[in-house]
Amino acid sequence: MAFNFDESIDRRHSDSYKWRKYDGRDVIPLWVADTDFRSPPAIIEALRARVEHGVFGYGAPPGELATLFVERMRSRYQWRVKPEWLVFLPGLVSGLNLAVRALTREDMGVVIPTPIYPPFRSAARGAARQQRLAPMALTQGRWQVDLAAIEESMDGTEQLLMLCNPHNPGGTVYRREELEQQLAFARRHNLLVCSDEIHCDLLLEPGARHIPFGSMSEDAEQRSITLMSPSKTFNIAGLGASLAVIPNARLRMKFIAQRSGIVPNVDVLAYVAATAAWRDGQPWLDEQLHYLRGNRDWLAARINALPGLRMALPEATYLAWIDAGRLGVENAQRFFEQAGVGLSAGADFGDPRFIRLNFGCPRALLEQAVARMERAIRELG
What we know:
The chain contains twelve helices and 14 strands. With 381 residues, the protein is of the alpha/beta class. Its cofactor is pyridoxal 5'-phosphate. GO terms for molecular function: cysteine-S-conjugate beta-lyase activity; pyridoxal phosphate binding.
């Protein structure tokens, strides 16, 4: 292995949001979605060269970055994206908020799967939009959204369907027929679609294939905003480089107008990192995926051997969605935090029975955290 994912890097005394939450406490943080891996050497070298240049004035998106992204979409997904469709953003969450505000009015509703990454619902809530929550259900080991479950309660004021593919939490990679059902739902109810695809490169299940929502047809293209980023893939989330793919010119202008004077441009170093990631990062990514698969499979075996916990294999992401409903404790996140493991509370995503565990870390750290969880459960019994 050319890259060392077993390397232990001390983040406790850095600016790490993930690790500083438990500053001064003996708690292993496996919650917020960044990894504890050193970013690819190609990115570090590109940043070093840019810093050596020494001038950090206002920056524009590099032409190479757009070219790399367009080629990436063509070669990976057979999606012929045009450079003028791209809107660069300093983070994907801002894209979720802009999509809600640009594509809906206050008297309109937003359809959102649940449980889901919290900023989806906070984007709707912050814009005072009504939410229609479509339940996720575990079917044959995969978490899938049941849009039919809410059709009878819809009143025609809904304007936007928000999707997460791969889904967070749960790690589902939607199949083409599932995406076609989502598109048919959007067409039936005359909905626009915002699809968060930030985890699309982190496919762990052999044979799984990511399909961008907008790539399915011209209709899907014209009614959608697709959000993508190299940030989760290459562990550069703190640099803030994301983009929206908006083929429909009218929707794109509304999106751009909504951000004017509020959402800043992308940082010049973020442009450098994103360009290096998509140009030179694939060998590192291939090895990271191999390492994450090992972590996932090891973790699932250990978790599913514990009384009171159940975990379906995520097809993508480095995030385990663990059912703790039978554990017999009032608050599983607090219970494991007191045992020295910091996890995400399922209530934040929409289901308090669950906890989310980030296994994007060296195996030794993961083993230490799971040993603490096992000990806490034994003592509970």
